[in-house]
Amino acid sequence: MDTGAGLLVKEPVVELLGISPEDVRAYLRAFFKTRNEAEFRTKQVEEWLFDRHARSFDEMTNLPSNLQVELGNEFSLTALESNYVARSSDGTVKHLWRLNDGESVESVLIPTKDRLTLCLSSQVGCALGCRFCATGHFGFRRQLRPAEIVAQYSDSSRVALHDFKRPITNIVYMGMGEPLANLDSVINSLDTLHRGFRKGARRITVSTVGLIPGILKLAQRPEPFELAISLHAPLHELRLELMPIESRYPLPDLFEALHSFQRQKKRRISFEYTLIDGVNDEPKLARALADVARGLTCFVNLIPFNPIPAISEWRASSPSKIARFSEALNERGIQNAVRRPRGRDIAAACGQLRLARKTTVSDNKKTGLY
């Protein structure tokens, strides 16, 4: 590119994980056509990208070495650097990924008998300041690009196959950040995960504190992505105390948007409800929750509070209180389940950056994963 001052500036490389599958194909076809290469070369790169989770063009061993170098000059695979890895006694694996500007984000692999779920991040930090969330206490740093979101899946997929001998089955946007506050990048990443990596839309859940414009935009998408609402209180004043976003999008407006979403999508909506001892765990609040959710097909995940240093006086509700809350929901016909805490010994909850076990990048490279 000529700057007009006689200086040539190299065009920025294209992040293949950050563009649509159609654009990936178009860029690759153009690249190979200008080099008089056969059409099948495009398919080879697509397979390395979407099926084999390549982190560098050097891994594409069925391509000539000169093409590997030239691809690397024009395109990026946005491979993340694994700063820390922590493995819990319950099988949960948490990564702290270093980005190219030195910032870091987290993702978590959560195994169960029937599925392997990846929890990924959509922002570096978060601006919404929910009091019970560790991420909110260190503030917002920047948005993630689509490729940085998708790379968490691609790189974690290598870990899944290496550590668990099975692929990731489910993806939840429940890591660092508010997904619908980074709407364009999240929408683009959803498209790549669904159509590029061929992950079923019903196996991808987007969680939000209740950003109504984003909810309504998701409702307009043709894919049946799942929606989870980070609720945590059914009354305005209490929710405002816990979640400042309540002042911008109060509960009546939020539930009006949820009814609209459900009319369009015909999908069940999930609610996340963190139970904090003496704060939001009384049975009368369960009944209030049932009242505000009336008319929705929904499911409530009850989550024992994961302590964070910023609020040392808070603790998780006791099992007996959680049971009473759950029963109060059952009595009102609201399906619910208590989510068993995972990875507490490695601080696996969103934003808890103090990892109990640390693995260096050089150690990781010995496995060939990073």
Reconstruct the topology from this structure.
Blueprint: E1 14-15, H1 21-33, H2 40-51, H3 65-74, E2 75-76, E3 81-87, E4 93-98, E5 104-111, E6 116-119, E7 123-125, E8 140-143, H4 146-164, E9 170-173, H5 183-196, E10 204-208, H6 212-220, E11 226-230, H7 236-242, H8 251-265, E12 269-275, H9 283-292, E13 298-304, H10 319-331, E14 336-338, H11 361-367
Parallel strand pairs: 1-2, 6-9, 9-10, 10-11, 11-12, 12-13, 13-14
Antiparallel strand pairs: 3-4, 4-5, 5-6, 7-8
Helix pairs in contact: 1-2, 4-5, 6-8, 9-10
Brief summary:
This protein is an alpha/beta fold.
Mean of residue pLDDT values: 90
The helix fraction, in percent, is 25-40%
The helix/strand order is EHHHEEEEEEEHEHEHEHHEHEHEH
Beta content comes to 15-25%
* Total beta strand runs: 14
Distance between the termini: 33 Å
Q: What spatial order of strands do you see in the largest sheet?
A: 3-4-5-6-9-10-11-12-13-14
Radius of gyration: 22 Å
Q: How does the helix and strand content classify structurally?
A: alpha/beta
Under CATH, the topology of the largest domain can be stated as TIM Barrel
CA-based shape: elongated
Largest sheet: 10 strands, mixed
Explain what this protein looks like in three dimensions.
- With 370 residues, the protein is of the alpha/beta class.
- It folds into two domains: 14-76, Orthogonal Bundle (DNA polymerase, domain 1); 81-346, Aldolase class I (TIM Barrel), CATH 3.20.20.70.
- The chain is 35% helix and 18% strand.
- It is built from eleven helices and 14 strands.
- The chain has helices at residues 21-33, 40-51, 65-74, 146-164, 183-196, 212-220, 236-242, 251-265, 283-292, 319-331, 361-367, and strands at 14-15, 75-76, 81-87, 93-98, 104-111, 116-119, 123-125, 140-143, 170-173, 204-208, 226-230, 269-275, 298-304, 336-338.
- It has a ten-stranded mixed β-sheet, with helices on one face.
- A hairpin with a 5-residue loop joins strand 4 and strand 5.
- The chain is elongated, with a radius of gyration of 22 Å.
- The two termini are 33 Å apart.
- Residues 353-366 have low confidence and may be disordered.
